[in-house]
C-alpha cells in the first residue's frame, strides 16, 4: 500500500518543472511585439555605409558596441575582401552587418558570424545578409579536449588563423585579441558564409537531374531541410579553403588593417 506521508522524489526537481521558468534562453520572435524579428535582426544604434564593389552595391550596417566589446574588422577591411570574392558568387547578397550580440547570446549561441538567407532590415525585407559579430576585449576561445573529427579540423583552422591554444585538464583555450579575431573573421568566416550562399544558389539555379522537377520553393525546402548540416559545413569549409589558398598565392592576404573612411 502506498504511504502518502512519503515525500515525492520529484518535488523541487526539473522532472516536476522546477526552474523551467528560470532557464536562460534567447527570446523567441513570437514573443517579441516589434515585427516578429529574430534576435539577430533587432539592432539598436547603428550607422550605414554603402560601397560599390565590382559594380555591385553593398550596404554595411555597423551597430554600436558595448564598452567591453569591439568590432574586429573595419568596413574597409571587409570591402577589400569582397573585392576578391568572385562576382558570380555575390548573387542578391547586399547586406553586411557588424552586430553587437547580447551577453546571453554570447553564452548560448557564440559564433564568429553567420549567413541569414532572409534577413529583415529597413527596406531590405527577407534579403540575404552576412553578419559579423563583435568580440569581447577580455574574451577567449575555449574548446573541449573531447573533440570529434570535424571539431579537431576546426581547431586546426583556428590555429592556422593565429589563435594560440594551450591545454589544461579539460579544455583547449586561446586568448582573443583584435588581431586574431580580425584574421578569423576576414580570412575564414567571411568566405565560409559566402560558401554557404554559393551552395544555396547552386541548388536553386543548377539543381541537377534529380531535383529538376522541383520548383523554387521546393528547392529551398530541400536545401534547408534535406541536406545534412555536416554536408553544408564541408562545402563551406572547402570554399573558404580554396579562396584562402588563391588569396595567399596571389599575396592578397594577409594585409594590414584598413581604417574606415570618414
SSE topology sketch:
Layout: E1 46-53, E2 56-63, E3 69-70, H1 75-84, E4 95-99, H2 103-108, E5 113-121, E6 124-133, E7 135-136, E8 140-144, H3 149-160, E9 166-167, E10 171-175, H4 178-205, H5 216-226, H6 229-250
Parallel strand pairs: 2-4, 4-6
Antiparallel strand pairs: 1-2, 3-7, 5-6, 8-10, 9-10
Helix pairs in contact: 4-6
Which features does this protein show?
single chain; alpha+beta; five-stranded mixed beta sheet; 6 helices; 34% helix
Strand content: 15-25%
Q: Count all strands and give the number.
A: 10
Largest sheet: 5 strands, mixed
Succession of helices and strands? EEEHEHEEEEHEEHHH
What is the terminal separation in angstroms? 81 Å
Radius of gyration over all CA atoms, rounded: 22 Å
Number of domains: 2
General shape: globular
**Secondary structural class:** alpha+beta
Mean pLDDT value? 86
Strand arrangement across the biggest beta sheet: 1-2-4-6-5
Show unreliable segments: none
How helical, in percent, are the residues?
25-40%
Task: Count the DSSP helices.
Answer: 6
Structure write-up:
With 262 residues, this protein is α+β, with helices and mostly antiparallel strands. The protein has 2 domains: 31-139 and 176-250, no CATH class; 140-175, no CATH class. It has helices at 75-84, 103-108, 149-160, 178-205, 216-226, 229-250, and strands spanning 46-53, 56-63, 69-70, 95-99, 113-121, 124-133, 135-136, 140-144, 166-167, 171-175. The strands form 3 sheets. The chain has a 5-stranded mixed β-sheet with strand order 1-2-4-6-5. It has a 3-stranded antiparallel β-sheet with strand order 8-10-9, with no helix packed on it. It has a two-stranded antiparallel sheet with strand order 3-7. Helix 4 (178-205) packs across helix 6 (229-250). The longest helix is centred in the C-terminal third of the chain and has 28 residues, at 178-205. It is globular, with a radius of gyration of 22 Å.
Amino acid at each position: 500500500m502506498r504511504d502518502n506521508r512519503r515525500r515525492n522524489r520529484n518535488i523541487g526537481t526539473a522532472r516536476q518543472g522546477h526552474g523551467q521558468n528560470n532557464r536562460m534562453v534567447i527570446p523567441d520572435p513570437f514573443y517579441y511585439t516589434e515585427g516578429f524579428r529574430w534576435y539577430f535582426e533587432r539592432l539598436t544604434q547603428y550607422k550605414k555605409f554603402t560601397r560599390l564593389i565590382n559594380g555591385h552595391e553593398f550596404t554595411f550596417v555597423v551597430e554600436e558596441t558595448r564598452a567591453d566589446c569591439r568590432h574586429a574588422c573595419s568596413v574597409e577591411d571587409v570591402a577589400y575582401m569582397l573585392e576578391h570574392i568572385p562576382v558570380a558568387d555575390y548573387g542578391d547578397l547586399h547586406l553586411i552587418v557588424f552586430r553587437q550580440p547580447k551577453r546571453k547570446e554570447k553564452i548560448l549561441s557564440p559564433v564568429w558570424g553567420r549567413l541569414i538567407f532572409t534577413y529583415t532590415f529597413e527596406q531590405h525585407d527577407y534579403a540575404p545578409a552576412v553578419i559579423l559579430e563583435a568580440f569581447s576585449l577580455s574574451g577567449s576561445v575555449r574548446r573541449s579536449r573531447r573533440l570529434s573529427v570535424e571539431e579537431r579540423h576546426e581547431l586546426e583552422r583556428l590555429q592556422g588563423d593565429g589563435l594560440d591554444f594551450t591545454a589544461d585538464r579539460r579544455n583547449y583555450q586561446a586568448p582573443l585579441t583584435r588581431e586574431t579575431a580580425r584574421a578569423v573573421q576576414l580570412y575564414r568566416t567571411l568566405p565560409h558564409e559566402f560558401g554557404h550562399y554559393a551552395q544555396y544558389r547552386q541548388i536553386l539555379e543548377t539543381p541537377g537531374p534529380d531535383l529538376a522537377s522541383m520548383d523554387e520553393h521546393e528547392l529551398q525546402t530541400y536545401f534547408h531541410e534535406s541536406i545534412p548540416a555536416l554536408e553544408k559545413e564541408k562545402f563551406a569549409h572547402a570554399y573558404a579553403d580554396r579562396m584562402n589558398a588563391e588569396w595567399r598565392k596571389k599575396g592578397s592576404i594577409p594585409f594590414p588593417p584598413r581604417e574606415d573612411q570618414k
